[in-house]
Design brief:
Elements lengths: L1 E2 L5 E3 L1 H6 L4 E2 L18 E11 L2 E10 L6 E4 H7 L8
Parallel strand pairs: 1-6, 2-5
Antiparallel strand pairs: 2-6, 3-4, 4-5
Length: about 90
């Protein structure tokens, strides 16, 4: 999911396991700044890994937390960093 209200790349624990992300305890326990703030999500772990999307490749920081219904949330700053534009007209 591309999420305009999220800060950072957020992944579910199941996705982190399936992607074999090497996680570590976060430096500070915080609640993710997301629309899911109404849920009881807290940051479980964090990870750093390379993300590849087509020709885009970047070392990124991931927040690992329970996110309802999704495996990964990409924030707008990720899109801006790579100059990705979404065409939602069709």
């Amino acid at each position: 999911l591309l999420h305009s209200g999220c800060e950072g790349i957020v992944v579910s624990p199941d996705f982190a396991c399936a992607a074999r992300l090497q996680t570590s305890a976060p430096k500070q326990h915080t609640s993710p700044q997301l629309v899911i703030a109404e849920s009881e999500s807290v940051v479980n772990d964090d990870a750093q890994s390379t993300i590849k999307l087509g020709r885009f490749e970047s070392l990124e920081y991931f927040i690992v937390t329970n996110i309802d219904y999704y495996n990964i949330l990409l924030d707008i700053s990720f899109l801006r960093k790579w100059g990705i534009a979404l065409d939602l007209s069709s």
